[in-house]
Specification:
single chain, alpha+beta, 3-stranded mixed β-sheet, globular
Length: 95
Amino acid sequence: MASILLSIKPEYVERILSGSKKYEFRKRLASKPVEKIFIYSTAPTMQVVGEVQVVGTISASPTALWEQTKGSAGITRDKYRKYFKGCKVAHAYRL
């Protein structure tokens, strides 16, 4: 299993580290199975601030993925839909 470094906006970093955001959404997954994500908080923080264990991944249509994850998504539906606009498949790392 691999470890990866992901750039994440500070508002989402806080939610991940507090445990209220249990999914990290991505348009693509890493090519190898991921065991750990090192979190790089983007501007204004601009540094690695922590790490989280990955317990699995989910891939589905954006609508189906939202229905599965919305309770602990840590993101508004509007921002989620904007991020995945035009995508046929959406992915999430389960944290």
